[in-house]
């Protein structure tokens, strides 16, 4: 089986570049943008050797996992472009739900797998990290912004020793190939990218994201650099910042950081 776009993605004008193996799909996408590619275009492989996640952490996808990046060149500010990550989370959650249902039907199973979105850019299953999302952006000719959204999903294997315990679809009993997941993801991306609408639809994206948010209303700790904020995960605001409500009722917006459910002091040391 080979990687193919879903029918909705094809009709929306998306194109596809596939690799048997590559260092980083994000790097491939951004290099093409620097050379004049304007997308929208997917870059996909089932074996990535030099990928990276947030804060330059390595994100290696052994053969059978899904490493995918979408290039969109758009007329928005970097702050607005950053909210596209929430649409990416929704797209991946929808694709995972669809392939899980199909896999369950094939195996005559009845379990309904639930996936949650962890601020700012992870997908969890059973409290474990299943996928991560990384946005990168660069200015290109015409005062436009080349935005690359990298989406890495543990299909057959998960890394060990990560700050947040990781899992894979195979470990969860969801027997699906990277190619099948990608076809669903490409269609779901076209759907939620349309809702996002260059940031104009972020209100709806925000509402849908909060419905799937991990830890909402629960104790949370956020570490950014040498500082920590602890309280209750209250919501995300209109810019996508995490709002932490402290014990005294103060609501603190957080624009970046590592989120731990429970105490940042104890979890952050893990």
TrEMBL record:
Keyword presence, Lipid biosynthesis: no
PROSITE patterns found in the cross-reference section: BPL_LPL_CATALYTIC
EC number(s) reported in the record: 6.3.4.15
Reactions catalysed: biotin + L-lysyl-[protein] + ATP = N(6)-biotinyl-L-lysyl-[protein] + AMP + diphosphate + H(+)
Gene Ontology CC: cytoplasm
Signal peptide: none
A GO molecular-function descriptor: biotin--[biotin carboxyl-carrier protein] ligase activity
Top-level EC class: ligase
Record InterPro entries: aa-tRNA-synth_II/BPL/LPL, Biotin_CoA_COase_ligase, BPL_C, BPL_LPL_catalytic, Transcriptional_repressor_C
Record-linked Pfam families: BPL_C, BPL_LplA_LipB
Keywords annotated in UniProt: ATP-binding, Biotin, Ligase, Nucleotide-binding
Domain BPL/LPL catalytic: 1-197
PANTHER family cross-referenced by the UniProt entry: BIOTIN PROTEIN LIGASE, BIOTIN--PROTEIN LIGASE
Protein's recorded name: biotin--[biotin carboxyl-carrier protein] ligase
Organism field: Bradyrhizobium sediminis
